[in-house]
Design a protein that fits this description.
Blueprint lengths: L1 E7 L3 E8 L4 E12 L4 E2 L8 E6 L5 E7 L2 E7 L4 E9 L11 E10 L6 H6 L2 H72 L4
Antiparallel strand pairs: 1-9, 2-8, 3-4, 3-7, 3-9, 5-6, 5-8
Length: about 200
């Protein structure tokens, strides 16, 4: 997931990332500040840092740390589900004066450690092949974990759908019985009315 978004200087922005359990998540970000004179975003935002907060599906804070104007954060999930990743600048200016617009570039990678080409190039050929093979095995484990997680989600969704369909069926049966009961009661009431008035 690679994206950028605009934010106020004191504004907190959050994204939701659906992550399987026991999975490494690595985030890279860069902050740019709007320059009024140049009418453009500056390549760096000196003096600005970012508070990064990660919350688990159980609403527990997994990570809460202050980083610089650009940096890398990482965490390992212990629960599967939607993790909330929030970023907010560490500006100390009052909200009324913190009018600068920020552009935040964010790249989030979900999975095992990614291949470091500089490490690969420093090895001899045999070690390079071995290193790449280990990396591929890690990737296979990650894909297998993702598939198991998707299978669990699909099974949970199927159970919820079946329960909903079952509830709808029972509600339809109850409605039908109520309508039949009301119909029988109305017929009996009309019959008793006609008999009492000696119309029948």
């Amino acid at each position: 997931l690679a994206l950028y978004f605009h934010s106020g200087e004191r504004e907190e922005k959050c994204i939701i990332e659906d992550v399987p359990s026991d999975t490494l998540v690595i985030g890279n970000y860069k902050v740019q500040r709007w320059d009024i004179h140049k009418q453009d975003f500056l390549e760096s935002a000196p003096g600005l840092g970012m508070f990064v907060t990660v919350t688990t599906p159980a609403a527990e804070v997994l990570l809460s740390k202050l980083y610089g104007p650009q940096g890398t954060f990482s965490f390992t999930s212990y629960l599967s589900g939607e993790h909330v990743i929030c970023l907010q600048s560490n500006s100390t200016r009052f909200v009324a004066f913190a009018g600068s617009k920020l552009r935040i570039h964010l790249d989030i990678r979900v999975g095992e450690h990614f291949l470091d080409e500089s490490v690969v190039q420093a090895k001899d050929k045999v070690n390079e092949v071995n290193f790449r093979l280990e990396h591929l095995i890690e990737q296979i484990h990650h894909i297998s974990k993702e598939q198991n997680y998707e299978r669990e989600r699909e099974e949970k969704f199927r159970k919820t759908s079946e329960e909903t369909n079952s509830n709808i069926l029972w509600w339809a049966i109850v409605q039908t019985l109520i309508l039949i009961s009301i119909g029988i009661w109305q017929i009996k009431s009309l019959r008793d009315f006609f008999i009492s008035k000696k119309l029948v």
